[in-house]
Amino acid sequence: MDNIYITRKLPEEIVEPLRAKFDVHMWHSESIAMTYEEIKINAKGAHALWTMLSDNIDRALIESLSNLKVISNFAVGYNNIDVEAAKEHGIIVTNTPGVLTETTADLTFALLLATARRITEVEQEIRSGNWTSWSPMQYTGMDIFGATLGIVGMGRIGEAVARRAKGFDMNVLYHNRSRKLEAEETYGFTYAELDDLLKQSDFVILLTPLTPETKGLISERELNLMKNTATIINVARGGIVDEQALFNALTSKKIWAAGLDVFEQEPVPLDHPLLTLPNVTVLPHIGSASIRTRQAMMELNAKDIEAVLENREPQNRIV
Ligand code: NAP
């Protein structure tokens, strides 16, 4: 019987159907992540490894799991897995695209609205007893309606965010390596080179995958191109924006604010300099975190693991 190892405790109703066909082992905790060494030891004989985005599945780990046929990642992003190493060893890698697109686009827009109108910052003002009078320019933010939105990474989620932006009468620019002519025609989105997008946008949203090419894509030079009234939103992956450069740009008022769902190190350390700034709105990597979507993602992982172990083609194969 093939053996499945799951690196986090998942709801039994999702895992249960797999138990009828396979030998399923699962980490005991929902909230405590496995360490690298724990995965290496616990998943030793596994034919399938069901991973979380916080697991570092590098070449050495892949090569230590000699029975492995499939790695199924509970995320659309797969920067935590060495897919080249997996491919070399004939191991299939799958992810969960599509089912999280609209949920993540909703959250992206929520973060955009919250950052522009200073929602979390001013809520804290009330709770701290600092709201002592109403005054004309107190707690004022930036308008979203009619503003120019620049989306870097116009894929599934980027397009879903851009469609929402049309409802706010925003002018949408996007940057990708390839043009999206159908979306340009249907919705009136405009393609721009990255530097032009950064110069023109009031809000810049990052939605590329984290790859060697996008690591540090937004650094000091790029932040300097932005308007000093502009806001940057990162819902993609930490590391696409250089956090030190972002801190410098915010403290020197080169840009106005930032909204971050993702960080270079997660959970973000409490003493992180960005957490000291009132114009930074932070979230704990919750882009896809609706009940229905998280269940749909798990169902994709389970189906694809089952498919590979039964020698069928999985639905969401990366390599
Ligand atoms: P997708 O459909 O693959 O879209 C990614 C887009 O990025 C593509 O349009 C791609 O177009 C573009 N891109 C890739 N490399 C680029 C580069 N070097 N420069 C400019 N554009 C580039 O993926 P998706 O489903 O929309 O997801 C996007 C990312 O969001 C994921 O990879 C994941 O990391 C992140 N995400 C985060 C959360 C969260 O909880 N915060 C949730 C879901 C997803 P070209 O190839 O034409 O350039």
Distinctive features:
alpha/beta, 7-stranded parallel β-sheet, 12 helices, binds NADP nicotinamide-adenine-dinucleotide phosphate
Average of pLDDT: 98
- Count, helices: 12
DSSP E strands, number: 12
- The global form is globular
Main pleated-sheet profile:
7 strands, parallel
How are the strands ordered across the major sheet? 8-7-6-9-10-11-12
Instruction: Identify every distinct bound molecule in the structure, by name, code or SMILES.
Output: NADP nicotinamide-adenine-dinucleotide phosphate
Distance between the termini: 24 Å
How would you characterize the overall build of this protein?
- With 319 residues, this protein is α/β, with parallel strands linked by helices.
- Helix content is 35%, strand content 14%.
- It has twelve helices and twelve strands.
- The strands form two sheets. The chain has a seven-stranded parallel sheet, with helices on both faces.
- Strand 7, helix 8 (181-187) and strand 8 (190-191) form a beta-alpha-beta unit.
- Helix 5 packs across helix 7 (156-167).
- The mean pLDDT is 98.
What is shown here, in short?
The chain has 319 residues and is an alpha/beta fold. Helices cover 35% and strands 14% of the residues. It contains 12 helices and 12 strands.
